[in-house]
Each structure stands twice: as structure tokens, then as C-alpha cells.
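G., the chain you wanted modeled:
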Amino acid sequence: MAPMPYLGQADWRAGRALCLTDLKANVSVYPVSLLFYSPPTCLRHEMQPSHPESPKRLDAIRDRIASIDWQGRLLVRDAPALAMERLYDIHPEHYVNLILGLSPGEGLVALDGDTSINKHSLTAALDAAGAGCEAVEQVLRRQGDRAFCSVRPPGHHAESTQAMGFCLFNSVALAAQRALDLGADRVAIIDFDVHHGNGTVEIFQDRPEVLVCSSFQYPFYPGRHDRVNRENIILNPLSAGTGGDEFRRTVESSWQKAVARHRPDVILVSAGFDAHRDDPLGGLDLLETDFQWVSELIVDMAEQHCGGRVVSLLEGGYNLPALSNSVAAHLLALAAL
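Predicted structure as C-alpha cells:
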């Protein structure tokens, strides 16, 4: 089947008003559809044998969601790989060529002390970004209400010219750019990983059409772009040991006000679950109920401001039971179950 053409600006304007009206009018009548993307190539990207960012993360999520009765709301979808030239929307060509040139035929190549690539990593990264972009396109075209991309490598630490923190390309930034290319005026990105989404902030700090809200442990890795002062950048640093009550108090009013002021056409989520108290790479004290709460908060903001449109991409989370249970809580909230 031939790919659908991009929406023109006039088509988007006409369709957007109808979509917002339909979603707000029918949210309590019709079941929510939640598109689920998880390209199998994402399982082939591997780093060191004991590395916490492993294919087992996606296996654990798959097994957990298979145990839930989704009442027909979870729809598994395939997505095309991102065309290489689409990376240039966010990452300059010289950076993309650098990463391409480092891709090994066999074994591993270290990009930094934490991040390595094997011969499958670039394909996995393109498919992860492709899933995010396809999810945005389908949600904006009203082919699904919301979407979740269970993908790896993650992306929110990747700056425009710097791979780091297990990330090669910034998938959520590429998805935001796809939304803008399709006619959205404004996009909001909510990032609730234990580690600050430095790459997303670096990429969008001087682009007021994209709002970035980031909660993160502070001081902590990566220690970059965590003091940016822009109207479209909302930073919510959390001290080590912060639990659910303080997390909720910190982000609720801050994010609600920022999203209401920004009036996005879609909300994207960098969904990191390494703020869980059992995660080996973090020092916060959140539980599955807190991830359910923040997911419901995001859905509420989306219902108020952008017709319920939410596209979420997996970022961190490295304790497999905590990760899989937290993702389940996130998806149940997105599916309104």
C-alpha cells in the first residue's frame, strides 16, 4: 500500500478542528485506541553483556502487556524505518556521517564510556525513531488516539551533535519535528526520566514552538543543559530520595500552567521509568502508582488542550520487574483503563 501523503497546511487546519471536536465530544462514549509500536530490530542492538540497557527490557515489557486484558484498545502496529535524510531535520549531516562511519561490521565500538554500538545498532536507532514519527503521523491523522513506542536505543540524551547516555539519535525530537512538518503549530514534550533530557532541551531551547518539561534527579547525570532559562523550557529538578508526594507537588501545577499557556497540538512523552525506587541507575523513590498518576495527568492535559493526542516513547528503566509494571501502569492510563 502506498504511503499516505503528508497533510497540507489547509488540510490540517480543517481536519484539526473536526478532530478536536470529535475527541472531546466522544471521549466518554467511544473506547480509546492505543497504538503500540515495538520494531523487532530494536532487540538486536546490544552493548556489553552486563549492560543495563539490554534487549531484556523490551522482552519484559512485551510479556507484561501480554498478561493484560486490553479490551480491544491496544493495537499493535508496524512502522517503517526512518529515512536517513530525515535525521538531518535534527542532527547535522556531519554528525550522522560520523555515527555511520563508526558502525562496526562485527563486535562493538564505544562512543563513550556508557554507549556502544554493534552492527545492528544503527538499524535499531532508525527503526526506533521511525516508530515515533509513524506514531505521530497516525495520531495526527486520527488513525489512533494515543500511541506508545517500546523502543531502544533510547534518545533523549542525544544532543544535535553528541551521542551519549545510551542514545544515538534523539527520537522524541525527531517525532516532534515530524508533527511540525505535518502542520502542527506547537508541540509539548513531557520528560519524566530520572536523568535530565539534556538532548531534547539542547535541540529545542531556542525554538519556542516546542515546549519541553523535564523532571529529573539533581544533581545527577548527565549534568548538561539543566539550568537553561527559556520560557519554553520547564525544569523540575528533584533531590535524591524524592518520593511520590513531592514529585506530584513539584510537577503538577508547573506542567499544567506551562501546557495551558503553550496550547500544543499534540503532547509527546519521553517516558523514563528509572525514577522507580528499585531502579539500579537512579536515586528517586517513585512507585508504579506515581507513573500511573503522571500518565493520567498527561492524558488530562491532552484532553484539555489537544484533543487527547499523546505519543509516548520509552526512555529509561533498568530493573525489569519495576520497568514492566510501570510501563503497564503508563499504558493503562493512556488507554483509559
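The chain has one domain: 31-334.

Shout if anything looks off.
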